[in-house]
Specification:
By secondary structure, the protein is mainly beta. It has one domain. It contains no helices and seven strands. The protein has strands at 12-17, 23-28, 37-39, 43-46, 62-67, 70-75, 80-82. The chain starts with 11 loop residues before the first strand and ends with a strand.
Length: 83
């Protein structure tokens, strides 16, 4: 399978915890759809201390996985919001 584009899109989005609104990531997202996964190489700024866990309320918002052979976070539905 083809790997995702490393550079990715220029547009960034801010990802927040849906529960406490704490910032989680600044991410280079492509497309207009829902946020389903975050490739680790596209994360511009990471505000989390522990992987896949909110730094404020310690709620799990994602799972670590490999997608197309690339490390990524698979977002759990309804756990995050983005602008």
């Amino acid at each position: 399978m083809a790997k995702p584009n490393k550079k990715g899109p220029a547009k960034t989005v801010d990802i927040f915890c849906a529960r406490c609104k704490a910032p989680l990531f600044k991410y280079r997202k492509g497309g207009k759809g829902a946020l389903v996964k975050c490739f680790k190489e596209r994360i511009v700024k990471d505000f989390t201390e522990t992987s896949c866990q909110c730094p404020n309320c310690y709620h799990d918002f994602a799972r670590e996985t490999l997608i197309k052979g690339t490390p990524a976070f698979k977002i759990i539905g309804g756990k995050v919001t983005f602008k």
